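Dear colleague,

Thank you for sharing your sequence with our group. We've completed the structure prediction you requested, and as agreed, I am returning the results in plain text so they can be pasted directly into your records. Please verify that the sequence below matches your submission; if there's any discrepancy, let me know and we will rerun it promptly.
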Amino acid sequence: MPATRFLPVAAFAATVALLAGCGSLPDRPSRAMLYDFGPVLTARAPTPADAAPRPTLSLAEIDASTRLEGTQILYRLAYADANELRPYGQSRWSVAPNQLLYQRLRDALAERRTVLSREESATMARTAGRVPRTLRVSLDEFSHYFASPTQSAGLVRLRATLVQSAPGGDSVVAQRSFMVQRPAPSADAPGGVRALTLASDAVIAELVAWVDQQP
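Please find the predicted structure tokens below.
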């Protein structure tokens, strides 16, 4: 019997096998959920102290460790290994945490004073001969911190330095470290995002109040 008579049958069998194989392929990976701090829905109530003019401030970009420069949402299992930072698989920040904090901090400071970027401050120094103080912030911790499998919080730790520039060099006016925790409503990425947002707003409020207290 000629071999050519078996070709249609072989082709049919190959097609069935191909279709069966397609059915067994894994689903396409789901798109990562993107998070930010959300909008500020309530304005701070003005106080009598707000009527007093406050000096212009230069705000430097917030420094962060290499691990915190990415967009991963990180958590720590302190009850297992507090030294290990782990990422949530399908959840990310829309931009790096230090960038989210920078915008939130700038908006909060701008309620009381003019806030310049480093480039704008340099322009003022060249054109007006005045150099405003510079606020430098270093982000040291930004994680969903699990004290136990059922108890977790958003943990933010940063260091702020207020610097005065002069022709002879920079001098430190004041420096302080801040740490804030806020409980997470759930032991997952959305719960961590909510807790870290609340902790960020709280630490920014403390930082702004500290800057306002400097003579």
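Summary note from our side: Residues 189-213 form the longest helix (25 residues).

Kind regards,
the structure core
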